[in-house]
What does this fold into?
Amino acid sequence: MAIRDILIVPNPVLKQVSKPVERVDDETRALMDDMLETMYAAPGIGLAAIQVGIPLRIIVMDLAGQDEEPAPRYFINPEILEDVEELLPWEEGCLSVPDYYEDVERPRRVKIRYLDYHGKDVVEWAEELYAVCIQHEMDHLNGVLFIDHLSRLKRQRAIRKVQKAEREKALDAAV
Ligand code: K2U
Ligand code: ZN
It folds into this structure.
């Protein structure tokens, strides 16, 4: 397993639409293992393959609390089959938009279909944080970031804040 670099806005790769996985094999599983290790190290509770530069429709997630056993989840070629009208506002963050948080409204429950770690077909309802996180990650598979749901002004402010922080980090490293 390996920890991979997470792409940061405004990297144009993050705007790519990821392609479906054609066959779930050991190479797919090795990538998911790396993604999970990268997510835990960030730390985060979800990660899409495009965030480590791989344009494939793969997501990993672990919603277990800090004092709970890890509960890794793997989503290959996930689709939303149904959603509900009721919206749930949630203060979202993103490992590709570090240290920026804003409320985003999304459907409170979604019915999803995906292939699991071994390629088995799964259909289930997600709600609350699970619904927020899977929709956030599936946006990544379509080249959409949570800041794209905000006003133009807030989106530009977020990108400027991240770019400023990245410049300061580079200067600190150079000293
Ligand atoms: O896509 C990502 O960068 C992963 C997000 C997943 C997420 C987004 C919005 C709401 C919940 C989860 C990161 O995990 S954001 C960082 C984080 C870390 C711990 C708890 C919540 C969010
Ligand atoms: Zn994200």
